[in-house]
């Protein structure tokens, strides 16, 4: 009996398990998902928690409910992978043998990696919103905030959902205007990037949106430490704050490093098309856990999981096949005041204006703030629970198409 063991029951792990269950004979293959708990968190919703739009019950559901019949859920903490023996060891000593191993344990904010960040100000005037507990604490801080200096800082890249800090800046601007506090608040967006985003066309647009909202951009700001009420960069710049909203350094799981499978950030180096771990024929890494050069976004985890599962199932049925992931990512970007824009890109093509998913028709508009994009982002939560996780067919292309997109004239020239 073959064994597919999937470490992590988040977006990528759940979709891969459910698709493999349908494609592999139950009498020939066991599928096991390992996770520390039975709580599946809808991570895109964390952004809305500080502004009171979502509460904990809106975002957390039992993990086992979204795994297909015939997929075993093991609750436990992964301690070590022993590739030479095809074994996973859990805390407590339980051993799981695998024929194929899928690493999908994501990436996690690590405030402990920035000196001073976990000082007395942590949870008081310094916050993050990439965990549910952190987002809830930040909601309380925003309710108490009466004006002053706010710094939104990205410590380093890569991070999961790299547009989320920008969205937070736009939403906070709108939130403060509604409360009559914007005139008494200085907003600063500090980023390690030279601009607002990684790709030129989107960076130009998003940068101008920050400027239009009177949000100060501090580019190339590599945070070295936090001291009292200030954050200091490696080149000596200091940004004072009354409220710090930080995106800490993101790192993969510690067992990845302990098992000799990770890079310096505990992400698994993989072939960027097949998602096969470097040096291992029967180990793959999906979603935020790997090091592919595209966004660590839910859309990426979704596409990777589908392509990987199809390719592995084909291989196990004797048909030559490999996943051919092209880096496809798409992300809604909340702009405040009930509007959002949409990005669609891959390894080779940056986000461009146009329409999605149907070229020329949409209905969603790329790189243009619209109310329909905003409602599309909110409607996606329903699709996530009812269609995406159960791996039901969705009218969304796995590979990016250039049809319906165009390079702005000012950039092309």
TrEMBL record:
It comes from the Bacteria. Residues 3-292 form the FAD/NAD(P)-binding domain. SUPFAM superfamilies: FAD/NAD(P)-binding domain. One of its GO terms (molecular function) is oxidoreductase activity. InterPro entries: FAD/NAD-bd_sf, FAD/NAD-binding_dom, SQRD. Pfam families: Pyr_redox_2. Coiled coil: none annotated. PANTHER family: FAD-DEPENDENT PYRIDINE NUCLEOTIDE-DISULPHIDE OXIDOREDUCTASE, PTHR43755. This is Oxidoreductase. It comes from Actinocatenispora thailandica.
